[in-house]
Write a structure and sequence with these properties.
- With about 575 residues, the chain is of the alpha/beta class.
- It has 18 helices and 26 strands.
- Helix 4 crosses helix 5.
- The longest helix is centred in the N-terminal third of the chain and has 19 residues.
Length: about 575
């Protein structure tokens, strides 16, 4: 097992302490690059300005709703979201980040379940707020991040800032001196479960700060780094790793204008690190490979570059940035690290990107773990694994099968306080020894890397009792240029046997390039069947896909871009 020292980090006792330290350390350095108007240049916000705005907004908010209030945030990623979050938590309130893409009745339900006292929202959600106002009796205060019409009973964010500045000038210290208990609930997060009713996860300052310290000791993040924020900010992955981490480490968060603007915003911001989900990294990889293999000449040149790069690195010479200059320039010219999370990804994609000079690593987390449980290091990684346990985190495998695969359980300071108002679910998730049962299956290898094989509730059990992990088959299918997405299930054939079935959404661009425009559906089926046959050859017979169903549209997904699985 490798013994590589961890990166040095500074200790933080709570999120207010974290922000105050960062403001003192970085002062006039930029922390946020925001787009006030889409298409216009970035506006820079300094650490000092951010700290002042949090204090002002938090002071006005505390005056309005008092301490120990629950305050929901419903908005897209924007500067006001960042101010609101720490303006709530640093005054000992509880933040309730909500998914802005949810249907209005679901939003109302979550507001009622959380007993929110106040709702901070973007004007883009004004129609939703107007529609549900009569159905959320606990919400007494509304704060709009934009200008509000005179007829509205909502307060404006700007007005709250001005009020806070006035109160601070008069000596009000209700927010600044608010007592923070690091072990109390400070964030209430609703999980984006793909099937069951969302559970409400209770996290504390201590949970989040332990996660920040742990992940930053494993992967170097510094004041020279610029992160492009592309994932939903309400999700704990982006919130902890793509916002709080940067405030903690003195980095910059650059706002992305939308998925179609990623390349443009990368070049404008000079991005060095980006957090993605596998779907996005697969998209990056596919675009690179399509261009690299546009014709025989391009393919030869690309493969020569890959082979030359690998051979030079064996003797200590790294020419990847010059050999693949076009790739790097497309990403803005400064990108050094991509971190993938949310689901597993094909190791070959990680390796290909690394071979072109962009380090790609993956981590493993859950909302209940604030969120990181394991993470590949930038100096010690295994592309087939989810990573090494964070410092202070213990991972064990229980109920192992004959191959040593069992349920992954984790214990550490990052594990949630429990599920809000659901003692039964909490008891079922966290055992008497304090281990959180993830519901994921896998094993820990000899080097302590966590290898995930699948989700416990997704496992297909063959008639001879063998476990089949759909995720393994889906990963292999995804390597085909003709497959965009797939979902593998086990269907009863009515004769006591299980038929492993793959529903596949083909990559019609690649299919048409192979078969010609408007190909005969029978030929498309034959082409995909052949791809499945190649995958079957890589697996033992009981895992073989025996039925292939083609789709003409992509699968429904959660807002965190995971395919929704349906369980009966």
């Amino acid at each position: 097992m490798k013994d590589i020292p961890l990166y040095e980090i500074r200790k933080i006792k709570d999120l207010r302490d974290m922000l105050h330290q960062s403001v003192m350390l970085y002062q006039d350095k930029t922390v946020f690059m925001i787009k006030k108007i889409k298409g216009e240049p970035y506006t820079n916000i300094s650490f000092k300005q951010y700290g002042d705005d949090v204090d002002a907004f938090g002071t006005a908010l505390t005056q309005l709703v008092g301490h120990k209030s629950r305050i929901a945030i419903l908005a897209e990623t924007r500067y006001e979201w960042y101010v609101s979050y720490l303006g709530i938590t640093n005054g000992s309130g509880t933040a309730v980040p909500l998914d802005k893409e949810l249907p209005r009745q679901e939003i109302a339900s979550l507001l009622n379940r959380s007993m929110a006292d106040c709702l901070i929202y973007s004007s883009s959600k004004q129609s939703v707020v107007d529609a549900i106002a009569g159905d959320i009796p606990s919400v007494k205060y509304f704060i709009c991040m934009d200008d509000v019409p005179q007829s509205s009973n909502a307060r404006s964010f700007t007005g709250m800032l001005e009020e806070g500045i006035r109160l601070l000038a008069e000596g009000n210290r209700d927010f600044l001196d608010a007592k923070i208990d690091p072990e109390d609930m400070t964030v209430l997060l609703f999980t984006s479960g793909t099937t069951d009713k969302a559970k409400a996860v209770m996290l504390s300052h201590h949970n989040i700060c332990a996660n920040l310290e742990g992940m930053c000791s494993m992967v170097y993040i510094g004041p020279d780094d610029v992160f492009l924020s592309v994932l939903p900010i309400h999700h704990t992955y982006e919130c902890t790793c793509g916002f709080l981490c940067q405030v903690y480490r003195g980095s910059i968060v650059a706002q992305c204008e939308g998925l179609r603007y990623i390349t443009k915003n990368m070049q404008e911001s000079g991005v060095t690190v980006i957090l993605v989900v596998p779907l996005m990294l697969e998209m990056f990889h596919r675009a690179i490979m399509k261009k690299a293999k546009a014709d025989k000449s391009a393919t030869r040149k690309f493969m020569f570059g890959m082979n030359l790069s690998r051979n030079l690195r064996r003797i200590g010479i790294d020419k990847r940035r010059s050999l693949f200059k076009a790739v790097h320039e497309n990403f803005g010219g400064h990108l050094r690290l991509i971190i993938s999370g949310g689901a597993g990804i094909d190791p070959k994609i990680l390796t290909d990107m690394q071979d072109m000079g962009i380090l790609c690593i993956q981590g493993y987390g859950l909302t209940e773990c604030a969120p990181i449980l394991a993470l590949n290091r930038d100096v010690d990684f295994n592309n087939k694994s989810a990573g090494l346990p964070l410092p202070g985190v213990e991972v064990k495998i229980i109920d192992k099968d004959e191959n040593g695969i069992g349920e992954i359980c984790g214990k550490g300071p990052n594990v949630m306080l429990g599920y809000y108002e659901n003692t039964e679910a909490t008891a079922g998730a966290i055992d008497a020894d304090g281990f959180y049962h993830t519901g994921d299956l896998g094993y820990v290898d000899k080097d302590n890397f966590v290898i995930i094989t699948g989700r416990k509730k997704n496992v297909i059990i063959s008639k001879n009792g063998k476990n089949i992990f759909p995720e393994e088959i889906e990963s292999l299918l995804s390597r085909s240029q003709f497959v965009t997405e797939s979902l593998v299930t086990g269907n009863d054939d009515g004769k006591g046997d299980i038929i492993v079935t793959a529903a596949i959404f083909p990559n019609m661009e690649a299919v048409c390039a192979q078969l010609g425009e408007n190909p005969d559906p029978a030929l498309v089926q034959k082409l995909i069947d052949e791809e499945v046959r190649k995958v079957n050859q890589q697996m033992v017979s009981y895992k073989h896909v025996r039925k292939v169903v083609l789709r003409d549209s992509e699968f429904d997904k959660t807002t965190s871009k995971k395919i929704k699985r349906v369980y009966k």
